[in-house]
Write a structure and sequence with these properties.
Elements lengths: L4 H7 L4 E6 L5 H10 L3 E5 L10 H11 L2 E5 L6 H8 L4 E4 L5 H11 L23 H10 L2 E6 L2 H5 L1 H5 L6 E4 L1 H7 L9 H16 L3 E4 L4 H10 L3 E6 H16 L7
Parallel strand pairs: 1-2, 1-8, 2-3, 3-4, 4-5, 5-6, 6-7
């Protein structure tokens, strides 16, 4: 079993730098990102065609380099977070959490009793494939797994204090694209409605002892979020880096000419 790098940094007052994986699920790339120094891989199953079988090799590469793996699950039922954890995830991200009742449901499905109602198997990657003591596995599952609930809807902001008060989860994560659309100001991330949303999330998180995070398109944007109280920020994704890298290469090479 492995302790969570994310929780260690958060508990020590630091911040977490994550990078998104949604296109290239090659273990060598994950190992490379770990050796670069990232804290966390964000594996997206919500918007991608990948199945649960993609988690095992990625989680193995994460463990080899001391990174955490956070899986943004599909909201398909109680087995969605459980299977991701058994295949090696350290953290679960739930998209579009809209109520305190839903937050409690995800806590139930992610945490073992007495905190929640997660089912026990004990032979997955999270239990050292059956070599871990069952009691140690229960303790590890409740203390070294983090649960992040996404704030992506206007209705979530109306009950954000109630959601943040739910025990058993760790982090609120603002999805600014969906949230801006829901607020009627699509992709206007500096709009007063968005700034008020960040303020409300920060206030609720502080009040109830939770951390919060969000995406960030640049180091400058990430710094602004850290200054506002965020403790998890993103450094882009494989999709964006591939696109920008190839576009830049084409633009630069298009400037060369055949000598007359």
């Amino acid at each position: 079993m492995t302790n969570s790098r994310v929780l260690k940094k958060l508990r020590e007052g630091g911040y977490v730098l994550t990078v998104g994986i949604g296109r290239v699920k090659e273990p060598w790339l994950i190992e490379f990102l770990g050796r670069v120094g990232f804290d966390l891989i964000w594996l997206d199953l919500e918007h991608r065609a990948w199945g649960y079988d993609s988690i095992d090799p990625i989680s193995l590469a994460c463990r080899a380099t001391g990174m955490d793996l956070m899986v943004r699950i599909r909201k398909s039922g109680y087995d969605a977070p459980m299977r991701a954890l058994e295949f090696g995830a350290n953290g679960i991200m739930v998209p579009h959490c809209r109520s305190a009742a839903e937050a409690r449901q995800w806590v139930d499905w992610v945490r073992f009793p007495p905190v929640g109602r997660r089912g026990f198997d004990g032979v997955g990657a999270d239990a050292d494939h059956g070599m871990a003591s069952p009691l140690d596995h229960l303790k590890q599952g409740n203390e070294e797994v983090f649960l992040a609930l996404q704030v992506e809807d206007a209705e979530t902001l109306d009950v954000i204090d109630d959601i943040a008060a739910v025990p058993g989860f760790d982090l609120l994560f603002v999805g600014p694209a969906d949230l801006s659309v829901s607020l009627g100001v699509p992709f206007q991330f500096d709009h007063p409605k968005m700034q008020e949303a960040f303020r409300r999330v920060d206030e609720a998180a502080r009040k109830h002892g939770k951390w919060w995070g969000t995406t960030s398109g640049s180091p400058e944007a990430a710094q602004k979020m850290l200054d506002r109280g965020a403790r998890m920020v993103t450094a882009g994704s494989d999709h964006g880096m591939l696109m920008s890298g190839f576009q830049k290469a084409f633009e630069e090479f298009s400037r060369i000419k055949v000598n007359p």
